Amino acid sequence: MNPSTLLSLPLLALALGGFVVGSSEFIIMGLLPEVANDLGVSLSSAGLLVSAYAMGVVIGAPLLGPLLGRLPRRQALLWLMGAYALGNLGCALAPNYEWLLAMRMFTAFSHAGFFGCATLLAAELAPPHRRASAMALVLSGLTIANVLGVPAGAWLGQATSWRVTFMVVAAIGLLTLLAQAFWLPATPKPKPSAAGAWDGILRRPVLHALFVCSLSSVALFGVFTYISPLLRDVSGFKPENANFALLLFGIGLTLGNLLGGRLADKGFRYSLPLAFGVSALCLLGLFVFAQVPALALGCLFLWGVASFAISSPLQLLLVEQAGESASLAATLSHAAFNLGNASGAFIGGLWLTAGMGLNNLPLMGMAVLLLTILVCLPLPRLRSVKDHLKATGQLNP
């Protein structure tokens, strides 16, 4: 039987898990005004729900890593998705702000282990020449969540209640759990990690790249966390039109992910500073043209493309520089991104609390991006994927 046929259902179950996790992570951003009004908290306090989730991923990654490493991947994924569905149900039933904050952190712990387990299982199930494609398919669930899940969830929450949105995410999580239970094959216990795996992480280029991961997320989430109120209050969008803007941004993220992969494949030296520079220009455009809806949408779309064009180049750079610690580096990169997410949402909240205004928020993100360009310039040169496979013995010269 064709190997791709055997892989279709397991990969679909893993990609569906990525969709659930991605939807739950980002969906809160389109519902911040509704959550703030319902729970009687300020907009900046509601923004801490984004920070709490991100910090849950940061804390959960190193804590769950050793535990999940002892479990068969299928078993680990079932536990993680079950906990994720339960956590989203807890969010939907939250009686107050504090409970919602705690449930967001609980779901984030599950998130911390999911993508590492899912992508590794996809790579193990795929034929050697299709491992990268299998991993990309799992991660495509995350980008599709930004295109479909986030705008649809925001629309549903505004039309009914934000609690209904979390109920739906919990229900999809339960369906995903069933799909994984039926479709994922039994897997053996993973082999113990090689001794000294942390040695590769402590190399200067790896730490440098992880720092760039965090800085880039500070710039993104410092603005994107509050993009819905910015579009409504500054650009004058109605809630349903603001949801269309989120959809457009999600399409930009997906295209940016593909573009970043192409740049990484070619080993393009300036892919990172170019992406950061375009992102800074887009935020400048959003600041200047925020009150012109069509131009604001154009800036938002291009910002989405540039923002996710960094993902593949940074991941490839980490894999190249970390050596035998590549798997751990990939996990920590996710924690680094989420540390930046939490910091960005927190800094954006401080900006608003200080009275700097939603209309000036893009300037803060632009300043962080300009700093990021300076920081990323000394990073080592990217190799192409072909050269990387040759260097690691996975491709005959």
Automatic annotation (TrEMBL):
> InterPro entries attached here?
MFS, MFS_dom, MFS_Efflux_Transporters, MFS_trans_sf
- Please give the CDD domains that the UniProt record associates with this protein: MFS_NepI_like
Single GO MF descriptor: transmembrane transporter activity
GO cellular component terms, alphabetically, are:
plasma membrane
The portions of this protein that span the membrane are 46-64, 76-95, 101-123, 135-156, 162-184, 205-227, 242-260, 272-289, 295-319, 331-354, 360-380
Compartment(s) where it occurs, according to its Swiss-Prot or TrEMBL record: Cell membrane
The record's annotation in Pfam families points to: MFS_1
* Assigned keywords, A-Z: Cell membrane, Membrane, Transmembrane, Transmembrane helix
- The segment(s) forming the Major facilitator superfamily (MFS) profile domain are 10-383
Subcellular location, principal: membrane
What membrane topology term does the record carry? Multi-pass membrane protein
Task: Please give the superkingdom of this protein's source.
Answer: Bacteria
Q: What is this protein called?
A: Putative major facilitator superfamily transporter
Where does this protein come from, organism-wise?
A: Metapseudomonas resinovorans NBRC 106553
